[in-house]
Amino acid sequence: xxxxxxxxxxxxxxxxxxxxxxxxxxxxxxxxxxxxxxxxxxxxxxxxxxxxxxxxxxxxxxxxxxxxxxxxxxxxxxxxxxxxxxxxxxxxxxxxxxxxxxxxxxxxxxxxxxxxxxxxxxxxxxxxxxxxxxxxxxxxxxxxxxxxxxxxxxxxxxxxxxxxxxxxxxxxxxxxxxxxxxxxxxxxxxxxxxxxxxxxxxxxxxxxxxxxxxxxxxxxxxxxxxxxxxxxxxxxxxxxxxxxxxxxxxxxxxxxxxxxxxxxxxxxxxxxxxxxxxxxxxxxxxxxxxxxxxxxxxxxxxxxxxxxxxxxxxxxxxxxxxxxxxxxxxxxxxx
Length: 335
Ligand SMILES: O=C(O)CCC(=O)C(=O)O
Ligand SMILES: [Fe+2]
Description:
- The protein is α+β, with helices and mostly antiparallel strands.
- The protein has one domain (11-279): Jelly Rolls.
- Helices cover 30% and strands 21% of the residues.
- The strands form three sheets. The protein has an eight-stranded mixed β-sheet with strand order 1-2-10-7-12-5-4-3.
- Helix 2 (58-65) crosses helix 6.
- The radius of gyration is 19 Å and the shape is globular.
- Bound molecules: 2-oxoglutaric acid and fe (ii) ion (FE2).
- The site of fe (ii) ion has 4 residues, from loops.
- Belongs to the iron/ascorbate-dependent oxidoreductase family.
- This is Fe2OG dioxygenase domain-containing protein.
């Protein structure tokens, strides 16, 4: 695998796409053009930058990620307060890195659009006020907007592999959302070269939609690992979209799930906000019908998502970058 930083991932302009349109379908040529670009990018690199300037108003983005916004107010709380947001699942709740020299912290919120979820978090963080209403409103409004983009890209991918509207609805019912807000403290002058904020990994999700404050740091491998790494400079109206391992399975290996990592430099703390779509815990994950045929034999066996996640968190697998292959690959078929 190459480690040079000369890669680039595509930038796709979503202008002219109406996120509110139910299902534009093939009759809409703009939709078809953007869908083809999305699918090409996901097959070639597993990611792209989506430019969509009317999805999230600048004020809402600032209320979420800028100085004094929801992310900063959450992480500014004392460590013992943040630690109240626990969950028995290792990938949910508040987590702070135990790796020396890598002071990463994150809140992972399951089903962020369910009415009680964000108020519960706010109530734990600010028990005296019972939760700050502007925090809840910002979190909800922001997540709702980004979820529109996530659902739209997922629909484009499924349409591209021949899934009809009815089955797209069925797939949506087996999908859940998770919001992750992370803080990467600035390394300061000593870290001029950059410091690893999060080691290289692939996401287990279908899709991950990332936004950040104005501090870049995400690096993504390009060309399925053959074309170096990209460090996209995200504009304020961009969203970084990555495919995860579950989308790779759904599309029978057509879509790639790229390695990515965070490297931070400079004097400004980085905040990122990622909306993940995942299979529900009780879902069985398998390639969609249209993705398997005589020319494309099944690359993965069907499996239960909960079993897969349990496998990912075993000591042997935790650092394996190719977990889905280890768990579910059909012998002799290339993904
Ligand atoms: O915060 C970021 O930029 C990326 C984090 C990430 O890759 C993850 O949480 O899975
Ligand atoms: Fe990730």
